[in-house]
Every structure is written in structure tokens, then in C-alpha cells.
Amino acid sequence: MFGRMFIYKLKELVRNRFLIGWNFLFPLVLATAFYLGFGNMIKDDPDSFKAIDVGYVNTAGEDTNFHKVIGELSEETSDHADILNVSEYTSEEEAMKDLKGEGGIYGIYVDDGNEIKTIVPFNGYRATALNQIVREYENKITLIGNIAKDHPENLDTALELVTKDMNIAKEYDFGSGISLYLQYFFALIAMASLFGSWISTEMIEGMCANHTEKGKRFECAPVSKLMSIASGVLAGASMQAVSNAIVVIYIEYVLKIKFGIPLWNVILITTLGSGLGISMGVLIGALVKNKRLFDIIPIVFSMTCSFCSGLMWDQIRQMIQANAPILNKINPAALLVDCLYTRATYGTIDVYYQDIGIMSIMIIGALTISAVLLRRRRYVSL
Amino acid sequence: MSTSVVAIDNLVKRYGDKVAVDHFSLDVKEGEILGLLGPNGSGKTTTINCLLALLKYDKGSVTIFGKEMKPESYDIKSEIGVVMQNVAVVETLNVYENVDFFCGLYIKDKALRKKYVEEALEFTGLTEYKKYKPMKLSGGLLRRLNIACGIAHKPKLIIFDEPTVAVDPQSRNAILEGIRKINKDGATIIYTSHYMEEVEELCTRIVIMDHGRNVASGTAKELKSSLVNRETIRIGIPNRTDKIFADIKEINHVYKVKEDGEDLVIKCDGGEHNLVHVLSYLTDNNIPFGHVSTQLPTLNDVFLEITGKELRD
């Protein structure tokens, strides 16, 4: 029954011209418009990621593993662009003189051979990256320590890893030419994902007796309401995910705008975004009773969230982050943009996983609340 | 004795202060076509929604096939077909897919479902339109599709909620004929309408509703026989005198004579040849008369007598 309903729901959605137009064609048109508007700026953006200027002070008196690591991160290889631009100083005081951000250095590493002291007084992605490099290095060192203790026979191989596989850049795709203008494309994908909410509100409308006669027919049938809705949710999410994937492929391969993220990873994130849009729509459908609001709220919701995530003005998300960061954490579109941007700029750091975690929690939460509200029941009025 | 298919006992449904269904009871026997007749807003659809466990009600009970009807009574629901007042189909699916989709909510076996769907299309005369999308169908065909979606799974109990609203006479007749056939094939029918002619023509028993109450029930004949007025004769008599009035009043079964413009309206409380008796009197006394008509009581008269207003008010 579930499979049959899923297939019919999918058929129903694929043939819905309104949904095809807005959820699939409109993002393609908007992506093209963005490309025509600032496609070249993305390719030659002066604000694209540049190697981070950092000071290095060696107080150990000998070459250290960390020194080798940052040396490697300062070189452009086939795997990554140069991430760090290291200036070596003889003392912390000397380095402090240059610690002025723009025009100087953004942080200082003080290396005594055992511990790395990180001095990063500025906020922003550079600070995050500088701290993350040290954290990652220390994790590896701890791992090596454990290997030395538990499996001394493998120590040589492990030590080799310190110098060879301390290639943080492989995990953190820094410097892949990320432009701030890319945010517009990320916001566009987020918008397309939230348009999925229209799919689910329309679906809920057709499945609940208090909204339509078709809903009455469903509720008179001997099938579980939650199962019917679940099949619809899956069909909606599948359609939205495919639609998003096509938009992503179009941007990357037709418009030749590089996301700086492996394609499978972008599609994975946008699939999560599709789930987010669909589940938000289900929640709206479960909460809203008024027929007129039923049509208006998903539009207002998706457009407001998209606007606040930087669809029309790239600085708005940063402005919200500075003044009311919680809004960025509850705005599904902002979360999706942040997730894509973080992944593209810093790689798979904590913030990326945090965004994924929050989005997953939102999906589960929205569907759980909706299931409670929509479970089989009698209505007070029809 | 026929088994009870639907039993509604003392049902009360309020919307705030307004009582939509007021201590309403109903017993539908197997094989019946029960007509639920009442003006718009009389509580017919609310009663049906309570019956289908879609609406919460304040008091009373609903039993179908001997079991209490609840939202999760899937065993009962699998034996019920509902034809909604408004067309309830999926716009993006074609005729065949619509019937197959809704039938599939009841029938899991693919081969059996295919057979049922084809039979439903045949029955409603939609076979040649099976590839059409609903938007391409005329109003009458759309209504037929609505019916096909509600009956394809061959339910034992079918509820038709005003299925002929806004339907042309030809489609209406086809729908009524179809309902008769479904009933003949064994289904029990509950048919709600505010069209008394339809109900009278189709239903084996009628329940008249007003203000959520069951104001009268019985066969059409039983309901009409409960009326004082059994025949209304209207005759155009240009030269009327008091004597004519008095003489006609003396004719057996005539209980009321009144003027209505050029006409004389004569009401009779029984008898079989009242018109013959009145015309004999007029010809015997050389009283000239013009047009003549006679009218037997309708369900509207029943409603009028019980509630003091017309069904279509």
C-alpha cells in the first residue's frame, strides 16, 4: 500500500505544472539570472579565499612536526591551494607587532615542540581556520601517542603519517576559490529546497477532511492517515531532491560555477534541505487551519527565510549573525546556506556537522509534531 | 427481518450554541435506499460526517454493521463507499488512474482491482474517457467519475451526499438509474438530497430532517397519507357565486374551498374520484368553467404541513 501510494503521489507531483514551474524551472531561471548578473565576479572575485597570513614562532630550537605541517599547508598542490602564508618570527613580541589583520598577520603560532600556542585576536573564518588547524594537528599527535603506547610496533608507520598524512587540506577544502557571491547560489538552492514546503502543504490539504472533499475521501478509506502522509512526504522529498540535484548540476556543469565542494556532498546537503523544506511544509499544514493562510504561509515562509539567508542581499545573514545569531540557527534557509558555505570554505569542520545536526533535528522535530497533530482523529467542524 | 446496517441513536452535534443535529436517530436496514431529505442547513451532511466518524459529536452513538464506528474502524470503513457532495478527485491523474488510486485504498489485489476499476468505469459510462484528465470532462462526466471513485471497491454500504447538485437532467437520470442498479446488486444506500422528487422517485424509505431533527419518516406513500390534504383541484370559474362555493363544499371529501385569482382551489381530504364529482356538479348545473388541474400531495406538502415552511425555503 505504501509503495503504491508513493508512486501515485509521485505521479501526481510530477504532473503538477505549478510545482514543476516554481520548484524546478524557477530556480534554473534564477540561477541563470544570477550567473548573468555576477557569474564573472565569482570567477574573479577579489574576496575569494586567499592564503591566511599567519606568524610562526619556534621556541623549540629545532624543526618540529608542526612546522612541517604548516609548511605543507603553505604550498599549492594538486590537492589544494595554499592555505597559509607563513611568516616566521624569532619571538612572540616581534610577531605581535604585525598582528593587525588586514595588511599584517591574522594570528600567531608559538611552537615549543610540545604544545602549540595559538594567538588569534580576530573573529571570522580565518580565526576559525587557524584554530581548526591546530586542533586537528593535536588530535593527530594524540593518536600517534596512543599508537606508540599500545602498538609500538606500528610507531614508524604512524610517525610517517605525521609528516605525510597531516594533510589537513585534504579534509578541509580551503582555498578552492570560494567567492562570497557564491552565497547567492547557496541561498538559491536553499530557496528551492524551501519551496518543497508548498508540495507538502498541498499534500496535507488533499489528505485531511477538514481541508478538502478529497481529504474526506482519504479519511473515509481504511488506511492509516500517517501512512498516507508518510508516503506523500517521501514522494515530495524525492521529487524536491531530484529537482535540487538538477539545479546543482546545472549550476556546476552548465553555468560552470564551482561550489568548491565535491558534487556528491552538495547533493547530499541539498537532499537534506529538500527534507527540511518538505517537513516544514508538513508542519505548516498541521498547524494552520485556515484555507487562505494555507496557501499564503508557505510562500511567505519560504521567501522570508530565503531573503534572510542572503538571497537578495548577501550581507543580511552576516548582519543577523552579528545581532541575533539565534535567528540564523532557526532559519532553515540560513542553516542550509551556512552548511554549504562552511563546507565550501572550511571543509568538514564542527560548524558543518552542527548545521547538519540542527537541520536533521528540525526535520525529525517537525515531522514528529505534525504526526501528533495529524494522527487519526475526529474533527470539531468540517 | 432485514438486518440493521446503520444505527444512529440520539445523535447530538453542536457548533458552539447552534445545534446542528438534535437527538437524531436512524435505523437503516440491509438492502434499503434510505433518503435523507431536508432543506439546505437541515443537518444532513453533518449527520453523514458524524456517521463516517469524521466529526466529533456531543452525544449519541453510531453503529455500522453492528459495530461502533470510530475513526480507526478500518474493517467497517472497508465496506463503505462515499460519494461526496463536491467532486473529490485528483486533478493530475486521468480517469482510470483516479478510480484505480481510490479503489486501491480498499482493494490490495492487483488483478481484482483492475477488474473492479474497469467495471466501475463501465458502470458509470466512463470507459471511453479513461485517459482523460478530470479538467477535460464535462460537469456530468465529472460527477460520474466522482461516483466511480466512491463505488469501485464494491462496498456494502454507499453514502451519496447530494450527488446530483448542479447536474444536468440527463446526467441526473443516469446517476439515479445507476444508484438503483447498485442497490439491486445488493448495496444498502443512504441518499441525502434536498430534491424531493429525486428522493421520492428513488428511495424505499424517507427520513425528513429539519433543524437537525428527524421530523418524519416512512415510505413516500406513508408520509403523504399522513396529510389532511390528499388532493388539490384547481378550476377556472369566471362567474363564481356563494352558492357554488357552498355546493362544492357539500361534495364528499371536500374540506376547503377558496379563491385564488380567477381560480377556485378545492382541497379534499380523501376519496378517489374527487375531480369527477366536482366536474359533474359543474356540468349538471351548467356552470361554465375553464382550465382544470388536479394535484396529489408531494413531499413538499408533507414538509410544509410539519414545519410550516417549504422544503426549498
TrEMBL record, chain A:
Gene Ontology molecular function, alphabetical: ABC-type transporter activity
Start and end residues of each ABC-2 type transporter transmembrane domain: 21-371
Organism: Butyrivibrio hungatei
Keyword vocabulary terms for this entry: Membrane, Transmembrane, Transmembrane helix
Membrane topology summary: Multi-pass membrane protein
Main subcellular localisation: membrane
Protein name: ABC-2 type transport system permease protein
PANTHER family: DOXORUBICIN RESISTANCE ABC TRANSPORTER PERMEASE PROTEIN DRRC-RELATED
One Pfam family matching this protein: ABC2_membrane_3
Annotated compartments: Membrane
Keyword Protease tagged: no
Keyword Kinase tagged: no
Lineage top rank: taxon: Bacteria
GO terms for cellular component: membrane
TrEMBL record, chain B:
Residues in the signal sequence: none
A Gene Ontology molecular function term of the record: ATP binding
Keyword ATP-binding: yes
Domain of life: Bacteria
Protein's recorded name: ABC-2 type transport system ATP-binding protein
Record domain ABC transporter: where: 6-236
InterPro entries: AAA+_ATPase (IPR003593), ABC_transporter-like_ATP-bd (IPR003439), DrrA1/2-like_C (IPR025302), P-loop_NTPase (IPR027417)
Alphabetized UniProt keyword annotations: ATP-binding, Nucleotide-binding, Transport
Pfam families, A to Z: ABC_tran, DrrA1-3_C
PROSITE patterns tied to this protein: ABC_TRANSPORTER_2
Species of the source: Butyrivibrio hungatei
